[in-house]
């Protein structure tokens, strides 16, 4: 790119010299030589592309060929005018008085054509690189070294050399090189490179951590669980590479458009030359007009800006913790009419906690204290969900007559109190009459000293943005269908609470797949969002498979088209909005480019009929290259969009 800028600067300097210093008749052929040499220096790479395209018979009629024809044609006219110089003197040399003339000839046109084209190419390259850099920055991809712990010594190695089971030390300010489990220490970890969330998470022994995340505070020792090639960073690199390769409908349309459009421009240019040449007899002017049509008609602004718009949209999604595997899936999620969704881990967190506390004959705090005490030594999953992060201390020495009946409940004597907790049947078996709960969920009844104290209800926690996701997608005319293996009453409660359109309960994975296929047979775009291996068949079969919380999931990479890198359901709506932004930019770029090109072609054709109006060839280049730059910038600005919802 730097060499291209040097060539451009050289071309500008030579043009200034030829116009203002060598603007006399005696320098005519000197100017020709300087212009032609500069043209070759500026356009050798374009000429080489033309040769390669002709040799391979791929994209022969593209903007490179149009540009070369225009440049070489300009030099042909230049020679023609120089041979019969006295006739065309006033078209080349302009007297500014005091015996000072400047030269404005076709050689200048030809050089400026390539100068402006190369400037546009540089801006396009910078914009594309900036878009790709934003994607890479969004996921902080590369970790250069890892600190491996061997025999008490810390040794720096490449992340690719780490093996499963190795122990690595990660200090504050360092990126985690590979996925693993914390075996020592604690730290605050910034996961924004993967999830898009900028609130650091605390780690502790036994917690899984992922490559590409930054240690903000503390120090940890991690046991490697995946090789570098299988870690989160590598997955994201693969997804981005895959995303760049899969074309959208608009990309495919542009490819087809350019295959027909470019030959049409060539035919129009030839007809322009023949018709105006025969009508006016001014063949040099007719040829010049035909060359201007070739240059102005280049489809660069459309061919370059449309793919860039989609890549920028994929970059914007990455910045928001959404990995989209290809531009084609941007099209599909924009057209989505139905979203079928799993419940556990998608709308809910998939982790049970106390949602309702209903005390009788005591306060809430007293009820909870007794519940924590009675469940503190149980290994049952429900007991673990109740205790959560609570630390009860060592109470085992104060317990007498411990009894745990699997599937029913637990009881013991503690500091002179007989405490029991479990099902209604268990408490009634112990002689305690309970008041039955009316709410849905896992009900734990509590009794103290043969007296009913109340109950607590555990339920799957609702994700913060689940209801908002449903509301926003409803505004986009998307129908929400809940497919869950949970009980009817729980599915109904969630559907009514969130205003979900339909629900199906008590489903096995194959039953979910059958319902999904029924919905897809109705000829609408259907997405499925899930979070686990049991959802993999539906994720793969749907028009758009969306995986929730896919940081460490191999299934996400294998089957999903879109991966939400954290557990935020609102990201589904954001992905849809990003796709619509990209589509609107693409439509604007195409329509605006066509309008401008038609306007320029009209101006080129009326110059023969309007006195004192001339349309130089470099104006045609500006109409193409300048338009391309504007459309490229418009596509690039997608990266900097913000969302309010």
Distance between the termini: 41 Å
> What about the largest sheet?
7 strands, antiparallel
Q: What structural class results from the helix and strand content?
A: alpha+beta
Instruction: Give helix % range.
Output: 40-55%
> Please, what is the average pLDDT?
80
Total number of distinct structural domains = 3
Note poorly predicted spans.
Answer: none
Strands, count: 22
Number of helices: 21
Nearest-angstrom radius of gyration? 35 Å
Shape category: elongated
- The proportion of residues in beta strands is 15-25%
Describe the structure.
α3 packs antiparallel against α5, α8 packs antiparallel against α9 and α9 runs parallel beside α21. The protein has three domains: 263 residues, no CATH class; 76 residues, Calcium-transporting ATPase, cytoplasmic transduction domain A, CATH 2.70.150.10; 113 residues, Calcium-transporting ATPase, cytoplasmic domain N (3-Layer(aba) Sandwich). The strands form four sheets. Strands 3, 4, 5, 6, 7, 8 and 9 form a seven-stranded antiparallel β-sheet that branches. The protein is elongated, with a radius of gyration of 35 Å. With 645 residues, the protein is an alpha+beta fold. The chain contains 21 helices and 22 strands.
């Amino acid at each position: 790119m730097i060499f291209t800028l040097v060539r451009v600067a050289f071309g500008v300097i030579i043009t200034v010299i030829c116009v203002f210093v060598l603007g006399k008749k005696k320098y005519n052929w000197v100017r020709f030589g300087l212009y032609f040499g500069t043209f070759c220096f500026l356009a050798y790479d374009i000429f080489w592309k033309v040769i390669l395209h002709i040799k391979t018979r791929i994209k022969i009629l593209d903007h490179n060929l149009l540009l070369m024809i225009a440049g070489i044609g300009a030099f042909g006219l230049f020679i023609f005018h120089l041979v019969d110089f006295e006739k065309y003197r006033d078209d080349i040399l302009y007297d500014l008085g005091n015996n000072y003339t400047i030269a404005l000839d076709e050689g200048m046109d030809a050089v400026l054509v390539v100068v402006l084209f190369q400037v546009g190419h540089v801006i396009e390259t910078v914009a594309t690189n900036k878009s790709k850099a934003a994607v890479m920055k969004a996921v902080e991809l590369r970790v250069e070294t890892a600190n491996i712990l061997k025999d008490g010594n810390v040794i720096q190695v490449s992340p690719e050399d780490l093996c499963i089971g190795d122990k690595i030390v990660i200090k504050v300010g360092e990126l985690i090189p590979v996925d693993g489990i914390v075996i020592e220490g604690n730290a605050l970890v910034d996961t924004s490179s993967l999830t898009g969330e900028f609130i650091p998470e605390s780690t502790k022994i036994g917690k899984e951590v992922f490559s590409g995340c930054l240690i903000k505070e503390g120090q940890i020792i991690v046991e490697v669980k995946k090789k570098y090639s299988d870690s989160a960073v590598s997955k994201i690199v693969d997804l981005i590479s895959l995303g760049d390769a899969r074309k959208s409908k608009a990309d495919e349309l542009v490819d087809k458009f350019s295959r027909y459009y470019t030959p049409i421009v060539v035919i129009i240019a030839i007809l322009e030359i023949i018709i105006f040449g025969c009508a006016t007899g001014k063949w040099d002017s007719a040829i010049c007009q035909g060359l201007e049509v070739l240059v102005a008609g280049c489809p660069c602004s459309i061919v370059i800006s449309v793919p860039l718009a989609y890549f920028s949209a994929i970059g914007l999604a990455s910045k928001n913790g959404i990995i989209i595997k290809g531009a084609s899936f941007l099209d599909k999620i924009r057209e989505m009419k139905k979203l079928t969704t799993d419940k556990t881990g998608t709308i809910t967190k998939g982790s049970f906690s106390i949602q309702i506390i209903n005390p009788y004959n005591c306060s809430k705090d007293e009820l909870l204290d007794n519940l924590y005490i009675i469940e503190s030594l149980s290994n049952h999953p429900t007991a673990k969900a109740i205790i959560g992060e609570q630390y009860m201390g060592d109470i085992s020495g104060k317990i007498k007559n411990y009894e745990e009946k699997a599937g029913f409940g637990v009881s013991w004597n503690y500091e002179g109190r007989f405490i029991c907790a479990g099902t209604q049947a268990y408490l009634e078996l112990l002689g305690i009459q309970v008041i039955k709960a009316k709410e849905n969920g896992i009900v734990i009844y509590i009794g103290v000293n043969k007296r009913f104290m109340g109950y607590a209800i555990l339920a799957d926690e609702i994700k913060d943005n689940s209801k908002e996701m449903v509301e926003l997608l409803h505004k986009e005319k998307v129908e929400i269908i809940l497919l869950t293996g949970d009980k009817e009453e729980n599915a109904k409660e969630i559907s009514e609470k969130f205003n979900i359109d339909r629900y199906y309960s008590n489903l096995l994975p194959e039953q979910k797949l059958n319902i999904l296929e029924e919905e897809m047979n109705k000829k609408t775009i259907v997405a499925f969002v899930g979070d686990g291996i049991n959802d993999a068949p539906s994720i793969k079969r749907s028009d758009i498979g969306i995986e929730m919380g896919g940081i460490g999931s191999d299934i996400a990479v294998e089957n999903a088209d879109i991966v939400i890198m954290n557990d935020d359901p609102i990201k589904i709506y954001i992905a849809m909005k990003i796709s619509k932004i990209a589509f609107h930019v693409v439509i604007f770029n195409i329509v605006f480019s066509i309008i401008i090109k038609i306007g320029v072609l009209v101006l080129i054709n009326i110059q023969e009929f309007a006195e004192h109006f001339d349309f130089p060839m470099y104006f045609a280049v500006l109409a193409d290259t300048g338009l391309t730059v504007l459309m490229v910038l418009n596509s690039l600005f997608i990266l900097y969009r913000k969302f309010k919802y």
